[in-house]
Every structure is written in C-alpha cells, then in structure tokens.
Amino acid sequence: MFHLAGLFFLGFVGLAALSALVAIAYPVFVVWMIVDGVLRADAEYPGTQVNRKVLWVVLMVLVHPVAIAYFFLVFNKVKRGSLASCPAPAPVA
C-alpha cells in the first residue's frame, strides 16, 4: 500500500508529466494549424467576407487559441483541396 505522501508524490509527477506534454504539444498544434491555414484556398473558409483566409491566419498568429476554433470550424469539416475554388466572374460587356 502506498502511503499518503507516496500518492501525493505520484500525483505530482503525473501532473508535471501532463503539463510537460501540453507545453510541447500546444505550440506544435498551433504551428500545424497556421501552416494548414496558409495552404488552404480562400473558398474553403466559412463566411462570405473578402479575405477570410487572411483574417483566420492573422488571428491564429496573434491569438493562439483561435487555432483551436480553426481546427473545429475549418480543418475538421473540409479536407484541403476537396472544394473547387470559386470561378472568376464573367467580364461585363
């Protein structure tokens, strides 16, 4: 049987290991989402605004938790390159 001090130490080591894992994985995740955002076509982003891609990438660079929203709103929903890009508007005669 573990003593109370042993359980406390084991819990502390587990918490430290989990913290180290998150500290390593989070920046890797953010960089991965930024790279994916840069490589996607503008038509693959939700919304109708102009420069949606630029907005998402700038927000991911400046406000890192936006990468988590990007993961669920864009990355998971549409595989990169699966949507046809919007056709160019016809010239006005």
Protein architecture, described:
It contains three helices and no strands. It is an all-alpha fold and 93 residues long. The chain has a domain at 23-79. The model has no long low-confidence stretch (mean pLDDT 79). The protein has helices at residues 4-39, 52-62, 66-75. 61% of the residues lie in helices and 0% in strands. The radius of gyration is 21 Å and the shape is rod-shaped.
What does the average pLDDT come to?
79
Please tell me what the overall shape is: rod-shaped
- How many DSSP H or I helices? 3
Radius of gyration: 21 Å
Helix/strand/pairing category? mainly alpha
The parts where pLDDT drops under 50 for at least 5 residues are none
Distance between the termini: 86 Å
Taken as a percent bin, the fraction of beta residues is under 5%
Instruction: Work out the helicity level.
Output: 55-70%
Largest β sheet strand count, sense and barrel closure: none
Helix and strand sequence: HHH
Q: Give a count of the beta strands, DSSP E runs of length 2 or more.
A: 0
Feature tags:
93 residues; mainly alpha; rod-shaped
Question: Any chance you could write out the topology, listing elements then pairs?
Answer:
Elements: H1 4-39, H2 52-62, H3 66-75
